[in-house]
Amino acid sequence: MTKEQPTFRFLPPRAEMVQALQAQDASYDGVFWIAVRTTGIFCRPGCRPPRAPKPENVEFFGSVQECVFAGYRPCKLCRPDALNGGIPPEISRLLADIEAQPEARFTASELRSRGLTPERVRRWFHEHHGMTFVAWCRARRLSRAFTEIREQGDLDEATLGSGFSSHSGFRQAFEQAFGHPPGATVEIQKDPLRVTFLDTPVGRMLAAANENGVALLEFNDRRMLPANYETMRQRFGVPVVPGSHRHLDQLGRELAEYFQGQRRSFDVPLAPQGTPFQEKVWAELGRIPFGETISYDALARRIEQPTALRAVARANGQNRISILIPCHRVIGKDGTLTGYGGGLWRKRLLLELERSGRLPGDLTPG
User: Fold this and answer.
1) Which of 43, 67, 75, 78 is catalytic?
2) Which one of 3.90.180.10, 1.10.10.10, 1.25.40.10, 3.40.50.720 gives the CATH number of domain 276-362?
3) pLDDT at 50 over 70
4) 181 with 174: CB under 8 angstroms?
5) Domain 15-74 CATH superfamily
6) Least reliable range by pLDDT among 37-51, 71-85, 295-309
7) pLDDT of residue 122
8) Averaging pLDDT over each range in 7-11, 221-225, 257-261, which range is the top one?
9) Statement: the pTM of the whole predicted model exceeds 0.70
10) Which CATH class is domain 82-186?
11) Of 47, 75, 78, 327, which is the active-site residue?
């Protein structure tokens, strides 16, 4: 198998990573990974092995897949390849508290009391969400306010619950985020897209959903995050905000089962949006049996468009719900792997998972 290198993420300065290695600093878990040349194993920064590796014997990588493609195996102690294992415990607790207290303000002193520096939190949110911690919290509060106004129609309650000190400040922020004043929300029929990130053994994925279902699931390195947000806004014609949603929760559970070799089909509702021709192609993709592949030629014949091979291939490439709409199961007529937006190296791994029930290189979480 040809090793096609994945896209590298930004890494902190080496001196900072060495310091985190020596301190076994778990707050860097998910920011970078440590690979030890003398053992052939890669770990999280917070791993506590019996003997700490020497800095001159380590390499630093920005993702699990980069470690694997460099020939390293995951550590059995810290399981750096485990699904959703990239969120440091301190950040996980912070996210849980934000969810439980959406109106609360988490100041710099509050973060320090949790053992987190504001700089570390800002870096983590910028790396994982493409925005500062303050902007992320603000967007989450506005998203919650949108739902409350839609369901209850109480502007005063939504303003107080969103943590804004004045109605004017709330109105200005709300209109900037959603394109209309709060009072017009009950008249708006379209829900905003809630967006989150899901970690998988083959890379972080950007997921978006509304009441209709999952609208997007793409590998996060396919395009820059601001471009992804703007593409979603233009395609769906609705605001895009970070947040949780029951469809995203279900998607996370089902993806975990898929990568563990325990799920062959998905039950979460889907909400793809394309032209009638694109949606016809995507529907046919969903009929390709798990563990099997077909050619672009065969796909064109299945939709009774045998001469529209290029259009079929283009529609396949424009699928924005990866894995669930299995465009990775379409290959060249001669059996070669071609045309996968997430990278051919991912296509190979997904097909191997579906054929054998495990990812190669012991990447399957367990």
Assistant:
1) 43
2) 1.10.10.10
3) yes
4) yes
5) DNA Methylphosphotriester Repair Domain (3.40.10.10)
6) 71-85
7) 84
8) 257-261
9) no
10) mainly alpha
11) 327
CATH topology agreement for domains 193-259 and 276-362: no
Element (H or E) spanning 61, and its range? strand 58-61
Query: CB-side exposure of 325: number of CA atoms within 13 Å?
Result: 27
Distance CA 145, CA 246 (A): 17
Distance CA 126, CA 135 (A): 10
In the residue annotation, 43 being an active-site residue is answered as: yes
- What residue segments make up the domains of the chain, in order of their start? 15-74, 82-186, 193-259, 276-362
Cα–Cα distance measured from residue 341 to residue 335, given in angstroms and rounded to the nearest whole number: 18
The token pair that represents 6 in the structure block? 């994945």
Q: Which residues are within 8 A (CB) of 55 and not within 5 positions of it... i.e. 6 or more apart?
A: 18, 21, 22
What are 316-335's pLDDT values in tens digits? 999 999 999 999 999 998 88
Contacts of 185 (CB under 8 A, 6+ apart): 146, 149, 150, 178
Q: Is the pLDDT of residue 1 over 80?
A: no
Q: Which amino acid is located at 243 in the chain?
A: G
Active site residue 327: yes
Angle of helix 89-100 versus helix 118-129 axis, rounded to 10: 80
